[in-house]
Design a protein that fits this description.
With 587 residues, this protein is of the alpha+beta class. It has 15 helices and 19 strands. The strands form 4 sheets. Strands 4, 13, 15, 16, 18 and 19 form a 6-stranded antiparallel β-sheet that branches. Helix 6 links the parallel strand 7 and strand 8. Helix 6 runs antiparallel to helix 7 and helix 13 packs antiparallel against helix 14. The protein is globular and about 65 Å long. It holds the Pfam family YfbK_C. It comes from Zhongshania marina. This is DUF3520 domain-containing protein. Keywords: Signal.
Length: 587
């Protein structure tokens, strides 16, 4: 009996070892399949690794492997051909993502209390789909630099949960990080670059990156700020991860403001009230005392608070400074004007005064993320999520200038794809910022703002010409239109923006001419953005995740971080490693 047991155990170990060796050898990250595509008729889609003759993933990254539980088909003994295996492996990854549809609905706050997540509210999101260049050659959207989704996802992971899929917004995940894009040098406050490589989650597709870099200075960044704090002090904020964290965060902000800056404090709980009239930062003792006296209790009259905050902001308005209302709340409005539509209309009217509204979301269990997004987009501001003192230091310390001052407002992008190079395209993220083509030059159409020094990424997944079915289109009036005469042109990018204190749009353009390459030969910026995007596809249960894997995410993220040694990137790697066992356990 003992010998039979030993023999059976050895046999099982041999089978398991053979399976994992086969899995690793066949993974597109390590195989040449990621560099092999169908023949292309347009040279920009042919892989160009000539400048990287020995392209290899960074050694320490390539040694990492995340084992995903095999499907029952693997145990049947019939592994099938490689052609059959790829769809099967893609199905496994899709199943892994689908299993995240039922995340843990319980978590713990910083005090160790068990908190249900089922009252957290996130807007339903319909992913951007692939569009045919033959039908829709123009893609138009507004840029944004919100980072709320990343911090919120981090909070959920750190509290032991798998992130709620609808809490993941790909563009906010990607744009949490800094990128090494060229600074503006031609008189515009923005500069544009691009890169182009194989899509890591689908070797037959490409990934195009548009990178925008804002100037490090604006006309207003040296002229001070007029800030009105609008603080939620209702009963729902009576938690260690809400009002106490908020008070410490604004104390951090005050310690980094300039002597010429000025602040006021408005609170709301049942009714709105002025806690501190506009006060110079030089009188810091008065401001700190007002913050220290705050307590939480009562219901949430958010609408009245917003109205009062704008009234106060207009009283201390300075046309030569940044005028900003910062609303800090869990978003649980329940008294007076509280509907998303009513609040949006109110804020859209108020922003005409030149006062921007930015949002600081916080809390666990009843966080109203959908409302936060509506308010930030309507108020010409940005949305952040505050989950820790270190995040407060990032927003109000090391990145304070970016948080307070904008380099350009109403920034819009319009991309015209070359049909000779692109059959179909899909914008990754920015679902709430997609615009009609005719809105691009309509200066009455609101769009996103870019802070001083910010770098912003937009990603497109591309199906090259010659791949896939051609749409069956019959036209009476035929038109032939390309993005340009150059053979190497992929797309033509137009950028339109307004100066922070202007009303007239200014426009410039950039031609995307970078030849396709393997993802390992791409710039570190594209490698990093693709890793964060790939994780976002998995966490959000994207139907376009293809063969996305945690292994691919970690490989590229670790490789880039080994070169840059960036604190935020190191944190990202640690989060993915912490998250991995939970996802594998769910499978």
């Amino acid at each position: 009996m003992t010998m039979r047991y030993i023999f059976t155990l050895c046999l099982l170990l041999l089978v398991a070892g053979a399976f994992f060796a086969f899995q690793a050898a066949d993974d597109p990250v390590f195989s040449d399949s990621a560099k092999t595509t169908s023949p292309q008729t347009h040279s920009i889609n042919e892989l160009d690794d000539s400048q990287h003759p020995t392209v290899v993933y960074q050694e320490q990254a390539a040694q990492q492997f995340i084992a995903v539980k095999p499907s029952p088909a693997h145990h049947a003994g019939n592994m099938g051909s490689k052609a059959e295996l790829e769809p099967r492996r893609a199905h496994e990854y899709s199943k892994l993502a689908a299993d995240m549809a039922s995340p843990m609905l319980m978590t713990r706050n910083p005090m160790g209390e068990v908190i249900p997540l089922d009252r957290e509210n996130y807007a339903a999101k319909n992913e951007n789909r692939f569009l045919s260049v033959a039908i829709s050659p123009l893609s138009t959207f507004g840029l944004e630099v919100d980072s709320a989704s990343y911090s919120n996802v981090r909070r959920q992971i750190n509290q032991g949960s798998v992130p709620i899929p609808s809490s993941v917004r790909l563009e906010e995940m990607v744009n949490y990080f800094d990128y090494n894009f060229p600074a503006p040098s031609d008189g515009h406050p923005l500069a544009v670059m691009s890169d182009y490589a194989v899509a890591p989650w689908n070797p037959n597709h490409r990934l195009a990156m548009i990178g925008v870099k804002a100037t490090d200075q604006s006309a207003m960044s040296d002229k001070g700020a007029r800030i009105t704090f609008l603080l939620d002090t209702s009963g729902s904020m009576n938690s260690a991860d809400k009002l106490p964290l908020l008070i410490r965060s604004f104390q951090t902000l005050l310690s980094n403001l300039k002597p010429q800056d000025q602040v006021a404090i408005v609170t709301y709980a049942g009714s709105a009230g002025l806690v501190l009239a506009p006060t110079p930062v030089t009188e810091s003792h008065r401001i700190h005392q007002a913050l220290a006296n705050l307590t939480a209790g009562g219901f949430t009259a958010g609408g009245a608070g917003i109205q009062l905050a704008y009234d106060v902001a207009r009283k201390q308005y300075d046309e030569n400074a940044t005028n900003l209302v910062i609303l800090a709340t869990d978003g649980d409005f329940n008294v007076g004007v509280s509907g998303d539509g009513e609040l949006k209309s109110m804020i859209e009217k108020q922003r005409e005064s030149g006062v921007f509204l930015s949002i600081i979301g916080m809390g666990t269990g009843n966080y109203q993320d959908a409302k936060m997004q509506v308010l930030a987009e309507a108020g010409n501001g940005v949305a952040h999520y505050l989950d820790s003192d270190s995040e407060a230091q990032r927003l109000f310390g090391s990145e304070l200038t970016r948080t307070l001052h904008i380099a350009a407002k109403d920034v819009k992008i319009q991309v015209e794809f070359n049909p000779a190079a692109v059959a179909q395209y899909r914008l990754l993220g920015y679902e709430s910022r997609v615009m009609n083509a005719e809105d691009f030059r309509d200066d009455k159409k609101d769009s996103g703002e870019i802070g001083v020094g910010h770098s912003v990424v937009a990603l497109y997944e591309i199906i090259p010409s010659g791949i896939g079915a051609t749409p069956d289109i019959e036209r009476r009036y035929q038109t032939t239109r390309t993005a340009g005469s150059e053979e190497m042109e992929l797309a033509y990018v137009k950028v339109r923006y307004k100066q922070p204190d202007g009303d007239k749009g200014v426009e410039f353009a950039h031609a995307m001419t970078t030849k396709a390459k393997s993802i390992a030969a791409a710039t570190p910026d594209l490698q990093w953005a693709s890793a964060v995007a790939e994780l976002s596809l998995l966490l959000s249960k994207s139907e376009h995740a293809g063969s996305a894997s945690l292994h691919g995410v970690l490989s590229r993220a670790k490789g880039v971080n080994a070169k840059l040694n960036d604190a935020k990137r190191t944190e990202f790697v640690n989060l993915v490693e912490r998250l991995t066992p939970r996802l594998v356990a769910q499978d």
